[in-house]
Amino acid sequence: MIRPGTAAVEQHWDPARYQRNAGFVAVLGEPLLALLAPQPHERILDLGCGDGTLTALIAARASVIGVDASAAQVAAARARGLTAEVVDGARLAFAAEFDAVFSNAALHWMRDPDAVIAGVWRALRPGGRFVAECGGAGNVEAVRRALTATLARHGVDGEAAHPWYFPAPEEYRARLERQGFVMISMALFPRPTPLPGSLADWLDTFAESFLATVPPQTRSRVKQEVEDMLRDRLADAAGVWTVDYVRLRFSALKPAKTAP
Ligand code: BEZ
């Protein structure tokens, strides 16, 4: 069971590795841009902008600032000519500055969702919208189970290293509504995602907290064992891996008139 707020080893982001193994994250985020529908007069905050791939697409249509907890990713976003700052998503300090807050594939790394939602609320002007997509309940469940089973064989409690927050729609909706947001739309849907490389590469890019629980010399073996457990289920005859992603996508409104 995921417990928001519990500790996990910090994930490190290497922009080059991310581009190589996770370029699909931004490409598959493009439908979310359609839901955002940025307008030329708007000012938008991209929360968890990563290397700025989607931020750049927003920048072509509106004014945008990206924020991310990773200094390396912010540097990569700035290298594209974007405005980006290193900011912890649970400590947003903007005040009624944005027409929209956008977030793709980032909220599931933020383990204090109420602090994030409160910061988004403060950042939005009245009438502004929060448009986001993240991993939802059941996301990468097969991989998580194989990882924890493998680590258990190595004498490690993998669940204690679980770094992700994959909420059910009812739970996240309740959090948003408690803050005062009005839901426009919310959907949980499977999105099986073919990988550009091996599952081991994906684990290196995204599952650092789990792998860090065993000594460096054991990690290749753990990755191999996870691949062996999942090959029949997640790899095809050509060796292409498809991970069991589940997305939670929503749009929520900060009403123009809020209770005092
Ligand atoms: C995701 O985008 O759903 C995801 C990212 C990293 C780890 C697990 C899932």
Tags for this model:
9 strands; disordered N terminus; Rossmann fold; 7-stranded mixed β-sheet; binds benzoic acid; 10 helices; alpha/beta; 260 residues
Describe the protein in words.
The strands form 2 sheets. Strands 3-2-1-4-5-9-6 form a 7-stranded mixed beta sheet, with helices on both faces. Strands 7-8 form a two-stranded antiparallel sheet. Helix 5 packs across helix 7 and helix 6 (141-153) crosses helix 10 (216-234). It has 260 residues and is α/β, with parallel strands linked by helices. It is 39% helix and 21% strand. The longest helix is centred in the last third of the chain and has 19 residues, at 216-234. The protein contains 10 helices and 9 strands. The two termini are 37 Å apart. It has one domain: Vaccinia Virus protein VP39 (Rossmann fold, 3-Layer(aba) Sandwich), CATH 3.40.50.150. Helix 5 links the parallel strand 4 and strand 5. Bound molecules: benzoic acid.
